[in-house]
Write a structure and sequence with these properties.
- The protein has 15 helices and 20 strands.
- The chain is α/β, with parallel strands linked by helices and 505 residues long.
- It has an 8-stranded mixed beta sheet, sandwiched between helices.
- Strand 2 and strand 3 form a beta hairpin.
- The longest helix is centred in the middle third of the chain and has 29 residues.
- The protein starts with a strand and ends with a helix.
- The model has no long low-confidence stretch (mean pLDDT 97).
- Bound molecules: ligand BES, manganese (II) ion and zinc ion (ZN).
- Manganese (II) ion binds next to loops.
């Protein structure tokens, strides 16, 4: 798929499909008005007949319009004539895409870039269009014996975005490049998330990291096995892997986008390739979908890939704690006490609270990178689903400026997060009679906060934020679930904002 940016479409130029906006009350957008005038009112004629009311996302496909050399005109309802908000714009693009893709158009010229969206510029609008388009073509069919044919939805080959002037052209072109890289990353996150747990094991995640390092010279990787983790005294991490036939891996990826010694941004991903709950076994219906418990890890891989494609002038380290949580004779028991790499001892009262057990050692390991900030991404608690639903990832942080940056990046990318408090008052719920700390809270309330409070004990040495993505990383029900790729758009926006703030040299 090819995207290009142009300042106008000469009146005589042919195209497979023009995409134009119409507001409620049959008010044509500026560009639509121009074509309407050229064709002696043919567009407004159809509106007068009542074929399109202009409601947000409603569409009308017209063909062979007089004096318009393009084969088709796709009119898209934009709602009442006023400035749109983010959600409206995304929604009308999302609704327009399948209609466009069901036509035979190989190429389209999109004028929806002219719509005014509150506080958003041409870069934002172009990025949304490209990203939504490319995302709409994603299919996960690697495990279907009969692949869906390269159907209508893959027929479109080129899209031209029309912008107002030269300076917008540059901004839009840049945004197109960013969107393409973000979607490359997103597709990797989705493929890994959707991949079944008998294939996507900790070693599989390690091989994915090696693939990235082989493809991008800016990325290098180091993979620790069980023995090396033992040498580092990662007793908490290893306790989770004990019940599984699949050996755990601690995967580090280093992306160097700069030659100087700028401190790295460290991203830590929970990579539980399947979470049965261990000996604190999950009931059957709660176990379905637990292949998605490595979505944090997948996000780390996706972000590094997108950063490498964009050659971001930043240093980024990814750390993935990969293990499988299984029950059995050699698995950890509730009541076991283990010693983490930091020296803190942990009473494991519930083997299903395993994410924090692998992450705490990974977070201690991060100290060696002398990080600027550490952000962990984890499908950590079902309480995050209760608290925020799928509209926002839960954010908890020990550093207010970092939390602010992430909240803002969430707003502008549309991949939002929302902050929960990390007050000290919550800490005592983690007290243990026999060890330094228990891995679940008593009373069992504020589950998302307590999960973060546990991790906080291991992040005293640096600025840290925790994204609990249990509700946002995948969507759907037991029989029809899929990875969303979140919070990759949020993190990519955070990184792009960092580039703006820190400059390139
Ligand atoms: N991976 C789960 C959290 C989860 C649940 C993610 C549902 C996505 C959907 C995590 O390991 C877990 O089991 N958490 C427990 C913690 C509890 C035992 C303290 C939970 O949230 O129930
Ligand atoms: Mn669990
Ligand atoms: Zn889990």
């Amino acid at each position: 798929m090819e995207f290009s940016v142009k300042t106008n479409l000469p009146a005589k130029q042919q195209s497979d499909c023009l995409i134009l906006g119409v507001f409620e009350g049959s008010k044509l957008s500026e560009a639509a008005e121009r074509f309407n005038t050229n064709s002696e009112g043919a567009l407004s004629g159809w509106l007068a007949k009542g074929d399109l009311d202009g409601k947000l996302g409603h569409t009308l496909l017209l063909q062979n319009m007089p004096s318009i050399p393009s084969d088709r005109v796709l009119l898209v309802g934009c709602g009442p004539k006023k400035d749109l908000n983010d959600k409206d714009f995304r929604e009308l693009i999302r609704k327009m895409l399948p209609v466009l893709q069901q036509t035979g158009s190989k190429e389209a010229v999109c004028f929806l870039t002219e719509l005014v969206v509150k506080k958003r510029d041409i870069a934002w609008k172009s990025k949304q269009i490209v990203q939504l388009f490319l995302e709409s073509t994603y299919r996960f069919d690697s495990f279907k014996s009969k692949k869906e044919k390269a159907d209508n939805t893959r027929r479109l080959k080129r899209m031209v975005l029309i912008v107002a002037n030269k300076s917008e052209t540059l901004k839009a072109q840049r945004a197109v490049g960013e969107a393409q890289a973000i979607v490359e990353g997103l597709h990797l996150v989705k493929d890994l998330g959707n991949c079944p747990p008998n294939i996507c094991t900790p070693r599989y995640l390690a091989s994915e990291a090696e693939n990235l390092a082989a493809t991008y010279s800016s990325i290098s990787t180091a993979i620790l096995d069980e023995k090396e983790m033992k040498a580092l005294k990662m007793g908490s991490f290893l306790a989770v892997a004990k019940g599984s036939q699949e050996p755990p891996r601690l995967i580090t990826l280093e992306y160097r986008g700069r030659n100087d010694k700028q401190k790295p941004i460290v991203l830590v991903g929970k990579g539980i390739t399947f979470d049965t709950g261990g000996n604190s076994l999950k009931p059957p219906m709660s176990m379905i979908g637990m292949k998605y418990d490595m979505c944090g890890a997948a996000t780390v891989l996706g972000v590094l890939k997108a950063a490498a494609i964009l050659e971001l002038p930043l240093n980024i380290v990814g750390v993935i704690a990969a293990a499988e949580n299984m029950p059995g004779g050699s698995a950890t028991r509730p009541d076991d006490i283990v010693t983490s790499m930091s020296g803190i001892t942990i009473e494991i009262l519930n083997t299903d609270a395993e994410g924090r057990l692998v992450l705490c050692d990974a977070l201690t390991y991060c100290e060696r990178f002398k990080p600027e900030v550490v952000i962990d991404i984890a499908t950590l608690t079902s309480a995050a689903i209760v608290a925020l639903g799928s509209h926002a990832s839960a954010l908890l942080s020990n550093h207010a400026p970092l939390a602010k940056d992430l909240l803002e990046a969430g707003q502008s990318s549309g991949d939002r997060c929302w902050e929960l408090p990390l007050w000290d008052d919550y800490q005592e719920a983690l007290n243990s009679a026999s060890a330094d700390i228990a891995n679940i809270g008593t009373p069992a309330e504020a589950g998302t906060i307590l999960g973060a409070c546990f991790l906080q004990r291991f992040t005293k040495d640096y600025h840290w934020a925790h994204l609990d993505v249990a509700a946002t990383a995948s969507r759907g029900n037991a029989k029809d679930r899929s990875a969303t790729g979140r919070p990759l758009p949020l993190l990519m926006q955070y990184l792009l904002d960092r580039v703006q703030k820190t400059g390139t040299s």
